[in-house]
Amino acid sequence: MIEVDGKRVRVRDGITVKEALEIRGYKITKYPEKGSLFAPCEIGGCWSCAVEVGHELKPACITPVKDGIRIRTQLPEDYTPKRIVHGFSGHTVGGVGTPWLLKATHGYIEAACFAAGCNLRCPQCQNWETTYTGKGKASTPKEAAEMMTATRRKFGVDRMAISGGESTLNRRWLVEYVRELKMLNPDPNARIHVDTNASILTRDYIDELVEAGMTDIGPDLKGYYPETFMRITAIDDRGLAERYLNTAWDAAQYLIDRYKDRVFVGVGIPYNKELISVQEIGLIGEKLCEIDHEVQVCVLDYRPEFKRRDLIKPGYEEMVEIHKLLKEKGLTTVICQTGYGHIGPEL
Ligand code: FES
User: Fold this and answer.
1) Pick from 2, 8, 201, 277: most CB atoms within 10 A?
2) Which of the listed residues 58, 61, 73 should we mutate to test ligand 1's pocket, taking the one with most ligand atoms within 8 A of CB?
């Protein structure tokens, strides 16, 4: 017997708190919705699904029920969110939202960390241990911001990036983290950079992040067509895939239209001919060009990783062709990741 929001209920042993809540009729979702429990990663990484078990915050998706436990789904207004974030280190390449001119320099250019858990299931994920294993201690936003600030000092850089996994999953955590980071780094040189798949990055979420202090962002656009998005991400629910993809495109447009003068925006596009056609890359280029022909676009050469060891890494010449195509579409700041480093805007 357990207690859920004051009601005593009988559930079988061995299930998780999330499963117990589902059985009791609670709505669990893969896209944040009011009145539902958002459980996007299900590996105990993002803590978006956190509830109170006893008097402790716990991720519902991996916490087992035990006889006599008390679960509270409505967290107090002033609760402190937690999330697993690790890999604080100096970075020499930067991410999608790193300006090209910095990528082209040598040495450390950013301090970076990686948030565990993702809502997507990309079989070729390039950071799959962070994304799918949920290892590590969960940190509060303040703890993570302190670690990031120490990493900035250690590597003598001004940029502080968070990537993943998917950095945006636990909204309250990310907004508070950016705010804390801003307070610890009030100098005008400090840059707070978020790399994201942008699939749940709604306009009000963007407003909140900018208000908190985010200065740079790299949204990914994993396709023009939903079918491509589904192939790349292994999200097999078409409605959900469309919602994620539409949100990502809208986020890119809104960021550029509303915040171009205040926030650096660099867009990421995946390329591997097994996952997306050259023609579709052209369509993405045209659509981005309509939004802003000057926006930085970074094409990522998707390579054999994780469960897709069979993929063949795009060759250098192939990436040169993609680069030319996007330039022909009118984009002026195209960079392409290759096995030999980046191809810059000027070929
Ligand atoms: S959904 Fe439970 S930790 Fe991410």
Assistant:
1) 201
2) 61
Enumerate the β-bridge partners of residue 187.
Answer: none
Instruction: Give residue ranges with CB within 6 A of ligand 1.
Output: 39-42, 44-49, 59, 61, 117
First to last CA, the chain: 67
Tell me phi and psi for residue 7, to 5 degrees: -105, 135
Q: Which amino acid is residue 7, in one-letter code?
A: K
Taking the mean position of all CA atoms in its chain, how far away is CA 208? 16
pTM of the full structure: 0.97
CB 331 within 8 A of CB 293: yes
For the chain, helix (H) and strand (E) counts, in that order, are 10, 17
| Distance in Å, CA 168 to ligand 1 centroid | 12
Q: How many Å apart are CA 216 and CA 193, to the nearest integer?
A: 4
Integer Cα distance of 20 and 322 in angstroms: 49
Mutate-to-test residue for ligand 1 from 21, 49, 63, highest number of ligand atoms within 8 A of CB: 49
Q: How are beta strands 264-271 and 159-164 bridged, if at all?
A: unpaired
Structural domains of the chain ordered from first start: 2-72 (3.10.20.30), 83-343 (3.20.20.70)
Nearest atom within ligand 1 for CA of residue 49: 2
**How many A from CA of 217 to the centre of ligand 1?**
23
pLDDT tens by residue, 281-312: 999 999 999 999 999 999 999 999 999 999 99
